[in-house]
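Quick bug: DUF3592 domain-containing protein output formatted oddly.
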Amino acid sequence: MSPSQVPWLFALIFTPAGAAVGAVAFLKVRQARRLLRQGTGARGVVTRLEQTRIAPGSDSTSTSHSVGTTVYYPVIAWSTADGQAMETRAGIARPKDRTLPVGTRVEVRYDPADPSRWTLPAEGNGFWWLFVALGALFVVIGLGFFLGALLSRP
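Here's what came back:
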């Protein structure tokens, strides 16, 4: 591969990857915001914590200090307005000292047409906004490579 092709390659990697990550995260933010505005409220309780370990990447060369860390997903029991019992697992796992303890009462907002779409107002959207920003950054980097490749053409 010639050095003049490298910026094109980076542009073709960063731009669509950033767009995909940003778009998926933005859809998650939008869904949560819609549920907060229009969803039906219910009271729930954390019934248990589902334990998992952060596994190393498939190439086993990860140097992240979090590899091997045990994290916990809170499992919440709640009922819809029509009495349907639900037990749902939060989408974000955290270390035990930063997750909701068993017995904690929480508010759940859900879509009455599809109760499997739900959110915890207390969780916020900061995690997903971080990925929106990361996706935008990758798009900007990819477009920078694209612009650099265009300007360096003979």
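Actually, after a second look the formatting is fine. The first strand starts at residue 40 and ends at 53. Closing.
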